[in-house]
């Protein structure tokens, strides 16, 4: 397990905890398409298998696609976790959204609700560089808050 953890851009204990939670790591697989069912829910994803190419001048071997090696994997949930800083696209495209001076979305820490009532956020877009574990906690807190808000609308 320690060997696997060295390949991940995360702390060793995060990888261990994720595996204990049933997360399956597919190294050298690049998502190329998410497929939805007739209700718009994700049901599969297509991934391009990769291999490590020749070392560059620094000795780093970058992933390169294996020609024809595309797989479709059935899924019921996809968590995309890339980067360690907020992506500026959403905050800059919604002028009414309250943004911090660091470019992150300002939320209520208990509910994860933003200044726009129907928008909830968590993870890097709220915290800056955050761990996947913290982002997943934010997601659970936001989901609970959304559930409570929707239940009151009935």
Strand line-up of the largest beta sheet: 1-2-3
Mean pLDDT: 84
Strand percentage, roughly?
15-25%
Major sheet characteristics: 3 strands, antiparallel
The CATH C-level name of the largest domain is Alpha Beta
The tally of structural domains comes to 2
Note the total helix count. Answer: 5
Distance between the termini: 47 Å
Q: Shape from CA axes?
A: globular
Low-confidence runs: 1-7
Overall structural class, as computed from helix and strand content, comes to alpha+beta
Q: What's the quaternary structure here?
A: single chain
Whole-number radius of gyration? Answer: 18 Å
Do you know the CATH topology of the largest domain? FAD/NAD(P)-binding domain
Helix amount: 25-40%
What is the number of E strands?
3
Order of helices and strands: HHEEEHHH
**CATH architecture descriptor text of the largest domain:** 3-Layer(bba) Sandwich
Query: What's the name of the CATH homologous superfamily of the largest domain?
Result: FAD/NAD(P)-binding domain
Describe this structure in words.
The chain has 154 residues and is α+β, with helices and mostly antiparallel strands. The chain has two domains: 2-74, FAD/NAD(P)-binding domain, CATH 3.50.50; 89-152, 3-Layer(bba) Sandwich (FAD/NAD(P)-binding domain). Helix content is 29%, strand content 23%. A hairpin with a 5-residue loop joins strand 2 and strand 3. Residues 1-7 have low confidence and may be disordered.
């Amino acid at each position: 397990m320690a060997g696997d953890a060295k390949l991940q851009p995360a702390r060793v204990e995060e990888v261990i905890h994720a595996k204990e939670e049933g997360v399956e790591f597919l190294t050298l697989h690049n998502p190329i398409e998410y497929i939805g069912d007739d209700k718009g829910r994700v049901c599969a994803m297509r991934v391009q298998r990769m291999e490590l190419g020749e070392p560059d001048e620094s000795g780093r071997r970058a992933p390169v696609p294996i020609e024809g090696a595309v797989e479709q994997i059935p899924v019921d949930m996809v968590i995309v976790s890339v980067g360690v800083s907020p992506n500026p696209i959403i905050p800059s495209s919604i002028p009414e959204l309250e943004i911090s001076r660091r470019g992150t979305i300002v939320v209520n820490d208990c509910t994860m609700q933003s200044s726009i009532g129907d928008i909830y956020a968590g993870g890097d877009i709220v915290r800056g560089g955050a761990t996947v574990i913290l982002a997943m906690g934010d997601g659970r807190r936001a989901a609970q808050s959304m559930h409570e808000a929707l239940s009151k609308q009935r």
